[in-house]
Amino acid sequence: MSDAYNEILPIRILSLAEAIVIRPGMWTTNGSLTEILALFSGYELASQKADGELKDSSPSVAYHWLKTEAGVTEHVSPQALHSAIIERFGSEEAALNALREHLDSSEL
Q: What's the distance, Cα to Cα, between the start and end of the chain in Å?
């Protein structure tokens, strides 16, 4: 688990993906990367069906960034994607920290 819970962050509006990555335990059962991937994958599916009704595309952006970074080009299960991400980043914490930095530097 990252030290994000102990950090003093500037006050600003977070995207949904940023909120999930900073405090994964608030959004999932145990805060694991696999659960976060399942959440992002489900959001991606919902956004395809919502016909533009979802205002925050950040979970889809985060999901696609992780897939790209892990070298995954086809649809795979969250568990398979998890394995590829761990191979790329070395640990769940490193992957979530990299995603957090990416989201923080992106204009979503």
A: 25
The answer to whether the Cα torsion of 8, 11, 17, 19 is positive or negative is positive
Structure tokens at 96: 């979530």
Contact (Cβ atoms closer than 8 angstroms) between residue 47 and residue 40: no
Residue carrying the six token digits 């995954």: 72
Q: What pLDDT score was predicted for residue 4?
A: 58
Encoding tokens for residue 26? 């608030």
Under 8 Å between Cβ of 65 and 102: yes
Rounded to two decimals, the pTM is 0.82
At residue 107, the 3 state secondary structure works out as coil
Domain boundaries, the chain: 8-49+56-105
65 closest CA partner among 100, 90, 31, 30: 100
Q: pLDDT tens digits, residue range 40-92?
A: 999 988 888 887 777 898 999 999 999 999 999 998 888 899 999 999 999 99
